[in-house]
Amino acid sequence: MANGYWLSKNPDKAWAEKFFLTVIPWWFFYNMLMVQMGWLQTGTFWNFMQNFLMWFPYCVMVPWFLRRNSGIPWHESYWFKFNLYLFWLIFFVTYFHTEYFFEVLGLRYRFPEVTLYLDSALVGPAESTALETFQKIPPSMYFNSIVFFIVYHVSAVIVMRRIRTMTIGWSSGASKFIAWCAIVGLISAFWGWGETYMYFVMIAHPEDPASVNVWYENLHNMLWIGSWYYALYFVVSFPNIYRLDEDATGERWSISRTLIEATFASMIMLLLIDLATWGLMLAEIKIY
C-alpha cells in the first residue's frame, strides 16, 4: 500500500486547506455563542449581519490578507474559488432545496423578528400558509450555511485524499473505485448525520421551546433516516470540490468554470433528493 498524504500537492490549495481547518473551531464557537446569547432573536438586519459576519471577515478577508503577497492573483487563488463555489452552491440549495427539507424532513424556521424572506414561490409548501407553519427562509440562512459547508468540505476533501492516495499502488482499478466510493459514501453519511447531531443535540438545546429558531419535527427520524437523505448532497459536492485545482501541475479552474461546476452540482443534488422523495413516498416512509 502506498503512503498516502492529507494535503494537496498544489501548494496554493494546501495552504488554503490548512487555513480552512482553523474555521472548524471558529464555526463551533460562533454558533454556540449565537444560540446561547439569543442573538438569533433579532430583526432582519442584525439577523442577517451576524451570519454574514460569521463567514465574510474570517473566511474571505483573512485569507485575502494573508495571501496578498503570494504571487497568485486573489481571483485565481484556491481560497477565493472555494468560497465562490460554496457561495453559489448555497444560493441554489437554500432557495430551492430547503423547501424539500420543510416538506420531507420536517425542518422548521422560526424568526419572529424577521420581516424579509427569500425562497422559491412554487417549490415547497403553499406560500399562503408557509410563514404560519414556519417554512419560510430568512436571508441570513444563506450566509450561515456557507460556513457550515466550508467545514464539511475542507475536512471531507482532506480525508478523501488520504484514502485515495493510499490506494494508488493497488493493481486493480475496480478496487480503487470501490475504495473511493466507500470513503465518499461514509464521509457524506457522517456529515449528513453530524450536522443534525452537533447542532440540534449538542449546541441548540434551549430549555424554553418558544425560543427555538430552527428545529426538526421529529429529530430522531431526521438523525437516523433523514441523514441519508441529506448525505445525497455530499456524494455530489465532495468529489466535485476535490477536483478543484487538485493537481500540482494540472488545470486551474477559472471563475466561470467554478460557477458552472457549482450550478451543475446543485442540479444533480436536486435530482437526487427528488428521486429520494419518490422513494420515501412509494415505500410509505414518513419522517415526521
Descriptive keywords:
about 290 residues, mainly alpha, globular
Q: How many distinct folded domains?
A: 1
Which sequence of SSEs, written as H and E, runs from N to C? Answer: HHHHEHHHEHH
How many helices? The count is 9
Shape: globular
Mean pLDDT: 93
What features would you describe in this structure?
- By secondary structure, the chain is mainly α.
- It has one domain (11-282).
- It is 66% helix and 2% strand.
- The chain contains nine helices and two strands, in the order ααααβαααβαα.
- It has a two-stranded antiparallel ribbon.
- Helix 2 packs antiparallel against helix 3 and helix 7 crosses helix 8 (219-242).
- The radius of gyration is 19 Å and the shape is globular.
- The mean pLDDT is 93.
